[in-house]
C-alpha cells in the first residue's frame, strides 16, 4: 500500500526509491505467491501433520507459560537463522541451484513485502526445513508452533518491505538484519556473496560474508542524510547503487 501511494512522507525511507512496481506487477506477484501456497505450501502442511505429532508437538491443555513460549521462540529463531544461512548460501554457491531454483526469488532486485514468499516451490521446501528444525529439536505446544511460523512470516515481510523506518526492528533488536540488510542481498543478486542469513547478522559476520555490505553501508551511510535532503529538491536517491 505504501509503495502504491508514492507518498513523499514515506519515500525518504525507501531503500531503492528509483525502483518501483505498478499495481498490476504487484498483483502478478501476489497471484504467483497464491498459486505456490495452494499447490506447494498447502499440501506440504497436510502431509507434515503426522510428522508434527511424531516429533512431540502437543495439542492438549494446559497451554505453555509465557516464559516457556519466549525461550522456545528464541531457540527457534537462532536455529532457523543458522540453518537458513547455510542452505541459502548453498543455493548461491552452486550455479545449478541458483539458476534453477533461487533465481525465482531474486527476480525482484528491489523487494516488496509480497515477494517475501515469492520463490520456487523447491526453495520453499528446502528453506522450510530450516524453519522446522527448531521445533524438531525442542518440541513445543501447537500454540507456540503456530506462533513461531506467524512471527517468522512477519519478519520475512518486514525484511522484504524495501523500507527502513525509524521504528524498524533493526534499531532495537541486537544483531537483527532487517530490510536494509536483505535489500542489499537482492540488489547485488546472483553475484552476491554477502548477507545470506535470514534474520540476524552474526553468521555473516562470523563467516566473513558481510564484507561487501559493510563496505557499502559505511560509504553510503555518510551520504544518506545528504541524499535525503537532496530528495526534496531532485527526487529520491537510492541508498545502494553501482559506482
From TrEMBL:
Q: Which organism is it from?
A: Solanum chacoense (Chaco potato)
Q: Where in the cell is it found?
A: Membrane
State a GO cellular component annotated for this protein.
membrane
UniProt-recorded name of the protein: Putative methylsterol monooxygenase 1-1-like
Q: Which family does it belong to?
A: Belongs to the sterol desaturase family.
Q: Where are the transmembrane segments?
A: 33-57, 69-87, 132-151
Q: What is the lineage of its organism?
A: Eukaryota, Viridiplantae, Streptophyta, Embryophyta, Tracheophyta
What PANTHER family does this protein map onto? STEROL DESATURASE
Q: Which UniProt keywords apply?
A: Membrane, Monooxygenase, Oxidoreductase, Transmembrane, Transmembrane helix
Amino acid at each position: 500500500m505504501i509503495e502504491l501511494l508514492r507518498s513523499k512522507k514515506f519515500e525518504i525511507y525507501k531503500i531503492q526509491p528509483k525502483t518501483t512496481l505498478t499495481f498490476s506487477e504487484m498483483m502478478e506477484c501476489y497471484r504467483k505467491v497464491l498459486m505456490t501456497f495452494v499447490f506447494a505450501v498447502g499440501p506440504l502442511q497436510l502431509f507434515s501433520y503426522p510428522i508434527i505429532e511424531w516429533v512431540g508437538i502437543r495439542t492438549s491443555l494446559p497451554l505453555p507459560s509465557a516464559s516457556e513460549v519466549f525461550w522456545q521462540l528464541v531457540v527457534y529463531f537462532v536455529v532457523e537463522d543458522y540453518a537458513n544461512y547455510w542452505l541459502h548460501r548453498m543455493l548461491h554457491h552452486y550455479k545449478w541451484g541458483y539458476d534453477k531454483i533461487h533465481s525465482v526469488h531474486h527476480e525482484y532486485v528491489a523487494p516488496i513485502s509480497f515477494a517475501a514468499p515469492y520463490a520456487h516451490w523447491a526453495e520453499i521446501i528446502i528453506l522450510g526445513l530450516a524453519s522446522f528444525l527448531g521445533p524438531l529439536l525442542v518440541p513445543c505446544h501447537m500454540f507456540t508452533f503456530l506462533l513461531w511460523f506467524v512471527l517468522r512470516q512477519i519478519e520475512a515481510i518486514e525484511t522484504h518491505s524495501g523500507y527502513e523506518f525509524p521504528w524498524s526492528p533493526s534499531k532495537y533488536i541486537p544483531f537483527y538484519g532487517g530490510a536494509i540488510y536483505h535489500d542489499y542481498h537482492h540488489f547485488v543478486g546472483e553475484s552476491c556473496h554477502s548477507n545470506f542469513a535470514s534474520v540476524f547478522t552474526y553468521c555473516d559476520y562470523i563467516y566473513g560474508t558481510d564484507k561487501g555490505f559493510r563496505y557499502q553501508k559505511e560509504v553510503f551511510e555518510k551520504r544518506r542524510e545528504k541524499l535525503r535532503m537532496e530528495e526534496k529538491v531532485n527526487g529520491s536517491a537510492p541508498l545502494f547503487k553501482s559506482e
